[in-house]
Amino acid sequence: MKTLDNTVMIKKKNGLEIPLFISISLFSLLFFLSSTANGQIKSGQAPNIVLIFMDDMGYGDLDLNGAIGYTLPNINKLASQGMRFTNFYAAQPICSASRAGILTGCYPNRIGLTGALFPDSKIGMNSAEETIPEVLKKKGYATSMVGKWHLGDAKEFLPLQHGFDEYFGLPYSNDMWSIAYDGKLETDKSSWRSKVPPLPLIEGNNIIETIQNMDQMNTLTTRYTEKAVSFIERHKGRPFFLYFAHTMPHVPLAVSDKFKGKSEQGLYGDVMMEIDWSVGQIMKILKENDLENNTLVVFTSDNGPWLTFGAHGGSSGGLREGKQTTFEGGQREPAIMRWPGVIPEGTVNNKLASTIDLLPTFAAITEAPLPEKKIDGINILPLFKGNEYENPRDTFYYYYGKNSLEAVREGPWKLVLPHKYKSDEGELPGKDGNIGSRHTDSIGLALYDLRRDPGERYNVLKHNPDVVEKLQKLVERARVDLGDDLTGRPGNNRREPGRIGAE
């Protein structure tokens, strides 16, 4: 017998007529419950964690944030399958400090690591600081770091001494070599470039070769990706943590032949397309080994774009200024997080969060104990789960330089404190990879409502004295805790970096 729409049949059983759709529905329900149970078992296992960290990629450098002239299908797919954060901040707007923050869950100035460390630095990551891999190793994780380290190049500061089982990459930025931005060998003996050692490529604790020219530099993204894929393949049988810190798109831009000339935006677009390919390779190996549903993937950047390099320096997406400033263009970063079954697909999160929140969040996910020393990160796992009523982080401090407190944010309000800074606004940027002009500017006390003014153009200080008073109390709290060079405050809870020869 058929129903009027020809979809429901009648099935005879024990002399009774039973609608077939009930039988089908019962089977579907049982299958669903079985699948859900299996999913719960799998989600109860310790998840793998892949942290992809870009170098100098700005808020506007993803096509889902407005970039044009190239497309990033793998990164876009990552976002469509996970959560995109719109108010996500790097720990500081410069290389070494930012990396110290993401790995320790601390404001970098708390642990004495600021700025960008140069080759042969006498300081680096203090062994007394606990890093993400050291936290995860307590739960049996295999750990690997691929790419740019930049937390000290002496052996005692390298990744293997800070919780990583494996390391392959550069110990600092790819422009810290004897070749100037014009691509020529530095001949000026007074320049710092003439005094630095050859750019070393390190595996484990050993230099395996030196990068002598751009032809070698062009292979880095591919070689990094091959190492990352190999690590996943070799450790697919146990929980693993992969910290994949790309050298690109930091200048000098380098790209393999397979992507050279492929974008409509020139070399920068080519580089971004190769990075997207790299993300695709990571996702491919996870899928091939049935790991993608039990792996948390985080994609973000260390600081904003280096705007003085023009077309080689990326885009802030309309945010004010860029790298080396605490305006939004310097520290607000693209951030995508994917974890099937936990993070809702295709969602956007507008809550405040930071790279310093990743360590305590990973600890919460894996039930690992937090570091004994004070950290500044906050567990943002409730945001991963899409709970719109949760707001783990409501405050963020913007430090720069050695220990200068330049701004504070609470909710939508950002109070900028008087300070000087290097500005790109109104200046002609460089061309073809060369550096452009910048000037020193200054700003007085200013209040911005980032809901309506993410570009920080309209100072609404006079209209909101109560907000200013509230934020000034937060500023005072930070000055007591961490200090502030701008007002001569030392702070009570700062720690020393590692030093060569220190016991």
From TrEMBL:
Signal peptide: none annotated. It comes from the Bacteria. Residues 493-503 have a biased composition (Basic and acidic residues). CDD domains: GALNS_like. One of its GO terms (molecular function) is metal ion binding. Keywords: Calcium, Hydrolase, Metal-binding. Residues 482-503 are annotated as: Disordered. Residues 47-366 form the Sulfatase N-terminal domain. Belongs to the sulfatase family. This is Arylsulfatase. It comes from Arenibacter echinorum. The lineage of its organism: Bacteria, Pseudomonadati, Bacteroidota, Flavobacteriia, Flavobacteriales.
